[in-house]
Design a protein that fits this description.
Layout lengths: L8 E10 L2 E7 L2 E2 L4 E5 L6 H8 L7 E6 L2 E2 L5 H7 E4 L11 H6 L14 H13 L15 H14 L4 E5 L7 H17 L3 E5 L3 H7 L2 E6 L2 E6 L1 H4 L4 H6 L5 E3 L4 E3 L9 E4 L6 H9 L4 E7 L5 H7 L2 E5 L7 H13 L2 E4 L11 H12 L3 E2 L6
Helix pairs in contact: 4-5, 10-11, 12-13
Length: 375
């Protein structure tokens, strides 16, 4: 079997598992230098098992993994360490080590027999710590910092190792939203500026869809899909992959919504341009069923309304609102006890005349209420 020169990292028929029992078979990965690959799938699907097989913590049960034209199993430990660095969720418990000491271990593949770091090595250590904003933790005991800080320190360790590939297992697990975005932004920036390849697993689907060049979807005993986010996130696929039985996920927007209230609607919401989404979620939290409209298919409110409303009156994108849609909305208004209008229609142009008609109709019925009644 000859290596494929167009790919820096790839697998052929890789099978992984434990104690000789296959868990996932025939894994085919194709990754160019500088690309970001993210593994997604349900808990227990085997994402971590794949990562541990890639980094040689687990021996594969079949197939071949190639890295830079060489079989990964044939690389010496030192050669492998210079090409691949690892950040796993396993808790590291170094004894009597500062954060700087932990980061400095990333330079050991480059030191001599006595493991002494040169001035250049220390420059790389400090540069990596500053890059992930942990420079102020240099003298702190690693065991006495927060889990989120530990995760960033371990990323600094991986960076100063100067690898061609970083492998990360759920790297954002202990990070708040600020540091999630900073962490992933650093990875993305390094993939572009240093041609660094990244292989990781993530639970945050919206982040996986935004940062990844390729996605690998693990389901059952196989890789169900491998491709770009646009190829993977097709309508309905995430619900199928995760076996969702409640709520919904919108692949186009990354919106994750809870289950809609399943009863006849009490309120009709005239929404649009993103003004209704917060109200839709508030009504769902309070157990109030609602209908909504008239929304264009490409309106910012449409994904949440479609997921949470009893019924949504929807018009085709960039099309005028038809009288048929107006009449359907009026019937829903008749069936509801009240109507709430979230956008400011008075200053809107000609495009909103049908919505103004609905608001006026609700007013004649004595049903139109200000948005503030529920806020």
């Amino acid at each position: 079997m000859k290596p494929m020169k167009e790919f820096y990292f790839y697998t052929e028929g890789l099978t992984v598992g434990y104690h000789g029992v296959p868990l996932i078979k025939n894994i085919e990965i194709r990754l160019k230098k500088g690309e970001i690959l993210t593994l997604i799938g349900p808990n227990g699907a085997g994402k971590t098992t794949i990562l541990k097989s890639i980094i040689r913590q687990l021996a594969p049960l079949g197939g071949v993994t190639w890295l830079d034209g060489e079989e990964i199993e044939k690389l010496s430990g030192n050669a492998f360490s210079k090409k691949v660095s690892v950040v796993l969720t396993d808790r590291v418990r170094p004894e009597l080590m500062t954060c700087e000491d932990v980061v400095a271990t990333g330079r050991y593949p480059y030191t001599g027999r006595f493991g002494l770091l040169s001035g250049e090595d220390w420059d790389l250590v400090w540069e990596a710590m500053d890059l992930v904003h942990v420079g102020e933790l240099r003298e702190r005991d690693f065991t006495k910092i927060s889990d989120g800080q530990k995760q960033r320190v371990m990323l600094a360790r991986a960076i100063c190792q100067e690898p061609d590939i970083i492998v990360l297992d759920e790297p954002t697990s202990f990070l708040d939203i600020r540091y999630k975005l900073e962490f992933l932004s650093i990875l993305q920036r390094m993939s572009r500026s240093r041609n660094l390849s990244v292989i990781m697993s993530l639970h945050e689907l919206e982040l996986a869809g935004r940062i990844s060049d390729k996605l690998l979807c693990v389901k059952g005993d196989k890789v169900d899909r491998f491709g770009t986010p646009e190829e993977v996130f097709t309508p309905g696929y995430i619900s199928e992959l995760y076996g969702m039985t409640a709520g919904s996920y919108d692949e186009a927007t990354g919106n994750l919504e809870l289950e809609a209230v399943k009863k006849d609607p009490e309120i009709f919401v005239i929404a649009g341009n993103g003004t209704g989404t917060a109200l839709f979620r508030k009504l769902q939290r309070e157990g109030i069923s609602f209908a909504a409209g008239i929304l264009w298919e490409n309106d910012l409110d449409c994904p949440a309304a479609s997921a949470l409303a009893f019924e949504v009156v929807v018009e085709k994108a960039f099309s005028p609102i038809t009288q048929e849609k107006v009449e359907r909305a009026k019937k829903l208004i008749d069936a509801c006890g009240s109507v709430i209008c979230t956008p400011d229609l008075d200053g809107a142009g000609e495009w909103a005349k049908e919505l103004r008609e609905l608001a006026a109709y609700a007013g004649t019925k004595g049903k139109l209420k200000a948005y503030s009644v529920l806020t």
